[in-house]
Amino acid sequence: MVYICRVELEEITPKIWREFQFHPDITFHQLHQIIQVVMGWENYHLYEFHVNKTVIGLPDPVFEHMEHHETLNARREIVRRQVCEENTVFTYVYDFGDDWQHKVTLVKIDPSISNPAPLCLEGARSCPQEDVGGIWGHQHMLEILSDPKHPERDEFIDWVREGYDPEYFSREEMNLELQKQTDKLLPKSLNRRPEDKKPVKLTKSVLNKHLKQLSHDQLIELVKDCYGTSNDVKKFLAVKILGNEAVESLFLEYRKKVEQEFFPERGFGKLKLQEAKKAIAEFEKLTGSARYALELRLIYVENGVDFTQSYGDIDERFYHSMVSMYATIIEQVNEDETGELFDEYEERIEAIVPKTEGVGWSLHSNMSELYTLIRWI
User: Fold this and answer.
1) Looking at the structure, do residues 249 and 180 belong to the same domain, yes or no?
2) CATH code of the domain containing 50
3) pLDDT tens digits, residue range 43-87?
4) What is the pLDDT of residue 364?
5) How deeply is 49 buried, as exposed, middle or buried, from its count of CB atoms within 10 A (0-12, 13-18, 19+)?
6) Coil, strand or helix: which one is 371?
7) Number of neighbours of residue 229 by Cβ within 10 angstroms
8) Exposed, middle or buried by CB within 10 Å (0-12, 13-18, 19+), for 296?
9) How many domains does the chain have?
10) Whole-number Å distance between alpha carbons of 159 and 15
11) Cα distance between residue 37 and residue 234, in whole Å
């Protein structure tokens, strides 16, 4: 059995729509991933489903008490439990900033199809750009791109994804991508690992035993082979061999990664906050530098505050992220028994608070309260 659904973006004409099929026993998070593929989104932002009066998404336990409604966990909630009749209509909201509202309709329940793999059946027109500014921003961008003499045209051409054509749609490309992700888009009951096959894991004890058996030359060859496997390994070895010089060089690289999510050299900030936070975590893991990791977290919050001062209020989850990162900064300073981090960064930590005054979602009061928790004041 499969569900055949139609998804279309609201308030855009001509319609941007897709028809696709999937197994009804997948979770809503898997349905989110399928919609991302068939529509052509890039999965940068948060989402929610609204089925009748039920909200289904990814609850945040840290800020759960601040939510205005109960949210069912999309990773656990099965589609069939909430949607079980043909012609049921529900809403999929993607990117709470741009607020892309999708109307999803269960067109048909087909018991004759036994293949549970998701499949794109038909559709029309290309998905909007990520972070374009919602419906108004999308329409504004199309007007500029269609006018060869518009003064902003070159800037938008540099910003849009390569080869972007608002009328383009390829079912074959969508299905090729769905095929690549099939294993994670099937119900768990249909995608179990054979019980007789256990995952192989290299433990430290096994590694230590093996390394002791290698000769000096073999160890050198092993390290050289590791060096060529990935950029992360190269960076890790650079830190181990070159020391502070490599750490400082990596800091500049990762600082740019964080800053460009807010204020890139060209175009508008995409606010892929998960990418910025991932960069900070990656840097800290590679270098082990608490000082520079704190610096990157400060840069994250400083840029976030500067961004909202430049463009106005964003959304609740954006500010939650700023508060959460600021809390991590305070905690890291408090854990430093030497007080060196406090001496070096206290002025910058304090300077953030007054800049949040007047910003929505209680950002200023939350930041002010956190600042008073610094142990060295």
Assistant:
1) no
2) 3.10.290.30
3) 989 999 999 999 999 976 554 544 556 889 999 999 999 999 999
4) 96
5) buried
6) helix
7) 9
8) buried
9) 2
10) 24
11) 33
The lowest-confidence range among 134-148, 279-293, 341-355 is 134-148
Instruction: With 0.70 as the threshold, say if the pTM is over it.
Output: no
| The pLDDT of residue 65 | 46
pLDDT for 24: 97
Joined tokens for residue 142: 């199309």
Report the sign of the C-alpha dihedral through residues 218, 220, 224, 227, in that order: positive
Q: Which of 77, 69, 87 is nearest to 24 (CA)?
A: 77
Residue 106 in contact with residue 7, Cβ under 8 Å? Answer: no
Q: Are strands 119-124 and 89-94 parallel, antiparallel or unpaired?
A: unpaired
- Residue 149: inside a domain: no
pLDDT score recorded for residue 68: 59
- Mean pLDDT for the chain overall: 91
Q: Of the given ranges (148-157, 228-237, 267-276), which has the lowest mean pLDDT?
A: 148-157
Q: Please say if the pLDDT value at position 92 is more than 90.
A: yes
Give the gyration radius of the chain's Cα atoms. Answer: 25
Residue 65 DSSP class:
G
How wide is the angle at C-alpha 188 spanned by C-alphas 91 and 119, nearest 5°?
55
| Interatomic CA distance for residues 262 and 39, integer angstroms | 25
Compute how many other C-beta atoms are within 10 angstroms of the C-beta atom of residue 2. 21
Q: Averaged over 212-238, what is the pLDDT?
A: 91
Whether the CB-CB separation of 19 and 35 falls below 8 Å is answered with no
Half-sphere exposure of 219 (CA within 13 A, CB side): 10
Residue 319 covered by a domain: yes
Could you write out the DSSP letters of every residue in 152-216? Answer: THHHHHHHSPTT--TT---HHHHHHHHHHTGGGGS-GGGSPPPTT-PPP---HHHHHHHHHHS-H
Q: Check residues 201 and 72 and name the one with the higher pLDDT.
A: 72
Domain limits for position 173: 2-125+169-190
DSSP lists the bridge partners of residue 55 as: 50, 71
pLDDT above 80 for 229: yes
Q: Running DSSP on this structure, what letter comes out for residue 313?
A: -
